[in-house]
Design a protein that fits this description.
The chain is α/β, with parallel strands linked by helices. The protein folds into 2 domains: 96 residues, no CATH class; 274 residues, Metallo-dependent phosphatases (Purple Acid Phosphatase, chain A, domain 2, 4-Layer Sandwich), CATH 3.60.21.10. Helices cover 31% and strands 21% of the residues. It contains 8 helices and 15 strands. Strands 1-2-15-3-4-5-6 form a 7-stranded mixed β-sheet, with helices on one face. Strand 11 and strand 12 form a beta hairpin. The termini are far apart. The mean pLDDT is 91.
Length: 382
Amino acid sequence: MFSKPLFWFYLFLLFQVFIFLTNRVTFHPKWRISEHAWAFFWTAVFLVVLGVPNIPVFEAWDFLPVSWWGLPFFSKGVTVFFVSWALALWVDHAYWVLFRKKPVNFRFVSREKMKMPKSLKAPFGFLKQVGFENQLYSPEVVEYEVVLPHWPKEFSGLTIVQLSDIHIGKYINRIYLEAVVERAKRIKTDIFALTGDFISFRKDIALIAGLLKGFKARLGVYAVLGNHDHWADGPAMRKALEKDGIRVLVNDVIYHRHKGKTLAILGSDDRWEGNRNYEKLYKAKGDARLFLAHQPNDLPLGEKLGAHLQLSGHCHGGQICFPLIGPLIVPADEGRKYAGGFIREKNTTMFIHRGIGGFPPLRTYCPPEIVKLVLKSGKKNS
């Protein structure tokens, strides 16, 4: 059985279903249960759901195609059910990539891999033996130029530097974060945007105090809170950020005038745990609209607000990614479609940041990033 390619292919299909269930259920908590406990609980449940019905399949089938027809009716039904489910997921994703996914007019400008303090040693070093590198401490500085439909020419050339999902803690420590933050501060930009999940637990507020102080940008430094910030202590996290000179937008709008046109910077509270009173956002006026929202799930809100650009994080780029398989942990309504990078719906372009930190302390084929965006005006996309 273990030497049969069909056996490993079937396990791969089961794994696809497992990841789908994990992303759609485990990482969408609706009750106030520890995220870690929730994840481990549902992981066990899904292993049972997938494993128990397949026990008789593994016992009866030698994983040769011709012998499948001789399996009992139940075992054939189980294999058809799970294979159909996995293939349906593939078809859905392929349909989105080929037909539904709208093009984004962006250009990669530069990428710099940061040099980190030698004292930082990423855990799970043994993974190098099997061809994987833990990129937890391998941040990149990336710059893109993106053309936005209907973005006013008066604001063409506006620059934004985005950081997201810091998750300061045991592994995402001050030594690592100070290096990342100091590098980000050296980038000349018009706006700094910090899109949530600064901490994972309340005790981490003391660790992050003062870390983000000293950002300077011509039009300001802005932040929104994420689900983890609220789970820990949203008001205390907001106070800590404001003490460091960062404007926290809680369903609020900031305006800037330039050459007779208005730039509106909108920021929403977290969709899971924050205040969902968007009255101020709906009433916002602006020729150019930049929307900060921690979760990419808020793209429909960005569309309603007429945002030209939405900046989000939350999904960590999938964090643990594999060649061909792609990202594993993607806590978004659209699954791996919203893992990271550029997405567009109608005239709203969204950029999903891969994040700086993350749990577990493991990143493969998905390094942390500091992102600079240069915004250019463009005509309406098709």
